[in-house]
Amino acid sequence: MNKKLIIGNWKMNKNEKEIKSFFDSFSKSKDLNSIKCEYGVAPTFLDLMYTKELFSKNKKMIIASQDAHFEKSGAFTGAVSYQQLKDHGINYSIIGHSERREYFNDTDEVINKKVITLIENDMVPILCVGENLKERSKKKHFKVVAKQLHYDLNNVNIEKAKNIVIAYEPIWAIGTGKSATSEDAIEMAKFIRQELKTLFNEEVAKEIKILYGGSVNDKNVKEYLSNEFVDGALVGGASLDASKFIELLKGAN
Ligand code: PEP
Question: If you ran DSSP here, which 8-state letter would residue 32 be given?
Answer without folding.
Answer: G
